[in-house]
Every structure is written in structure tokens, then in C-alpha cells.
Amino acid sequence: MGGKIYRIPQGGPPEFVFQLEQGRGTLHGGVALDPSGRLHLAEYCRNSERASVAIYRGSDDGRHWEICYESPPGKLRHFHGCFYDSHADCFWFSSGDEHGENWIGRANREFSEVEFIGDGSKFYSAVNLIPREDGIYFTNDDPPGPNYICRLD
């Protein structure tokens, strides 16, 4: 569907509601829902020029979309996902792909406070994050190198 967001009203046909600025959408499982019912989608795109990449917020049952966070240019290639943590009442996100672009990030619910965790190495290239009460679990994604199951406390 090429980065297009559709909403399917109950009993009705799909309706186009928004077009992402870059890319095709998000990776599987990369959409998060917060307690107020807002959706958060982390943009997954080719981004060879390393421009800013966005996390979008959808409200009003998916009728309205806006950018709630943009990465600094050159910081990362794309987002792998966005995940809501009900234990800490925050969002986590992951990014990649090349050395220096792999981060795990934490943001408050409004994305007004964002923190990058790690050193950009492939160790922090995570596709999915699993928030638990005792920490964040993930597996790193380094096809030619060692891979681990990890926990951030």
C-alpha cells in the first residue's frame, strides 16, 4: 500500500486517511496503542540520504494523524518499531541499520522527552522490544555477527 494509512469503519469499506512522508509503513508489530487510545507508528523506509525519520500519532479512532517525533538527520536510517510500556507509562522504539545507527530509545507519552540508549552498534539493533515489569527484553539483529537475548533494566 506504499505508506498509506487506511481506516476501516465498522461495517464500511476501507477509507484512506493519511500518507506517510517516507517509506512503506512499519515493520510487523511496530504499532503501539497508548492508554488514551492513540496509535503510534514508527516509520520504516529506505532513507539512503539519512534524513529525519518520523514516529506518527493517530487519534480520533485513526481519523487524524500527526508527527509526534522526528529523529535528528543522520542519527538513524529508519525505525524498526514503537512499543508502549504500561509498567513505566512510556514508549520505547528501536532503529537501525548500519553501524552507528542502531538505538533503543525511550520517550514519555507526548514524545517531548526522548532518550537514546546504546552506542549505535549492531548490539542495539532490535526489531521488537518486549516491555516487562523487570525490564525491556529484545534480541539483537546482527546477521553476520553474534546475536543475543538481552534485558535492559
Description:
- This protein is mainly beta and 153 residues long.
- The protein has no helices and 13 strands.
- It has strands spanning 4-7, 15-19, 31-33, 39-42, 54-59, 64-70, 78-85, 90-96, 102-107, 114-120, 126-132, 135-140, 149-152.
- The strands form 4 sheets. The protein has a 4-stranded antiparallel sheet with strand order 3-4-5-6, with no helix packed on it. It has a 4-stranded antiparallel sheet with strand order 7-8-9-10, with no helix packed on it.
- A hairpin with a 5-residue loop joins strand 8 (90-96) and strand 9 (102-107).
- The chain starts with a strand and ends with a strand.
- The mean pLDDT is 93.
Write the layout of secondary structure elements.
Blueprint: E1 4-7, E2 15-19, E3 31-33, E4 39-42, E5 54-59, E6 64-70, E7 78-85, E8 90-96, E9 102-107, E10 114-120, E11 126-132, E12 135-140, E13 149-152
Structural class by SSE content: mainly beta
- Strand proportion: over 45%
Helix and strand element order: EEEEEEEEEEEEE
How much helicity do the residues have?
under 10%
Radius of gyration: 15 Å
Alpha plus pi helix count: 0
Report the span from N to C terminus.
38 Å
The description of the largest β-sheet is:
4 strands, antiparallel
Which stretches are low in confidence, meaning pLDDT under 50 for 5 or more residues running? none
Total number of strands: 13
How are the strands ordered across the major sheet? 3-4-5-6
Summarize model confidence as the mean pLDDT.
93
Shape descriptor: globular
